Give the backbone structure.
Amino acid sequence: MLLSPSGGKWYHFNTMKTLLIFPAQWYPTQPYLSTPYLTAFLQDKGWQVSQRDFNIESYDHFLSAPLLRQAENRMQESVQSLKSKNSLSIKEKSTLDVLAMGLKFSDRIIDGVEEAKSVMRTPERFFDFGAYQQADMVIKSALKLVSDAYAPAIFSLSTFESGTRAEESTRKAHETTRDVATNPFIHLYENILLPTENWEDYDVVGISIIGISQIIPGLTLARMVKEKYPHLHVTLGGPIFSVNAGQLIGHPEFYDDFCHSIVTFEGEEPMHRLLSALREGDSLHTVPNLLHLDGREVVQNKERVELRFEELPNPVFDGLPMDKYLSPYPIIPVLQSRGCYWGKCTFCTHSFVYGHRYGKQKTMAMVDELENLMKKYNTKYFTFSDEAVSPHSLNDVSEEMIERGVEIRSLALLKFEKIMDEELFSKMKKAGFIFLMFGLESANDRVLALIDKGTTKEVERDVLLKSHKAGIWNHSFLFFGFPTETRPEAQETIDFLKKHLPFLQSFWPGFFFFNPESRCL
């Protein structure tokens, strides 16, 4: 037995146990791959590791009558408080109107929320468009009730925002993770989710925060676990910390509040080395990719490691509640590759996070994994979650699936490439790729060149047309406001969308903003 540096607990060499958590708030339709990959790798190294998806568990509770009734009560209290005032500001009058509208329909929403979840999880009801539309409206309205009850927080299917920009400040994060008036996760964790786990059985808890919408919910969970269970070593990880690691240098109070360490960049080998260091009583200075406290100094260890992706074990989904996701069948995320085969887009941070390293699975191994997951979870629905699947990989995987008779239904993320032809998309459709998501970004050649996208407006048009002719649904992401983009250039993108709507079935516009580690900075 050796003394751990995380809180004075004596560890037995063979009994250290780790719990990996994916926190709220993220999309509720399928698992995310961070904890399944870490779990598989660490178990392969002989560690005792479990995983939980607090994201879908949080949704399941927020979308329930008990918690929605609590939200309704909070709204009623706010209404009474506002009405008791002698006069109201314009903002207060607006708030009163919003609360009154929500309360007008709250009974109907609350009474219908379990039915709505059932529709989303039942194939014959999910694919009835009328039933789906009604369920979707009820679920979104239920989350709006939570937002109204905890205003100015914003809670929806795609985001959680504090309303005070607490995601951008360690001081505000300290306050918001304790503010029961605006943070709905405090009550949820305290009274519902935390009591369902045997925390004394664990020695290490890892929390994966991969997006901005998870920062406050994830840090709230980290703070509460760290305060309530001082024997635990709490470590955080995810691309949010990789990109923003420099902002946490010089802020020891962040570690006082939320964690003992932070794993940056790829986490598999660093987590293995962290567990080894804790078990053996070694200094945390020996762990690669790690930020931690040394006295009152925040230290960023210099050693950085990345593993060959093709040598990692396949992710495992054991322990995740596959029946709770809001989808009619289990949807399994998979990766054909890690990193980006292009890796040149000037706005992107993926190459920074992955160390400009790209690796991909062998074709046979990829299709073997698909077949195994199909049998284990009785599903044919998958998401290829690569940053972008290369045309060559798509061709080879499609051919292998066709040859084996593997029948899937999947989406994939692609980059526009001139070599994408009718034959490729015909194979992909036959193999089961029914939904493709393209990074369009812009339809102006000058802007595309500035982005270093490696494509042109003409290629974008031709690829979308060929994919559409194969019977595939095309979706594109785009943004406006890339530096030096002019109004006529932005209009060119809008005109492109209008002109090509017949074979561009959906798109998601946004506004450009810099990440700290973008290549163009």
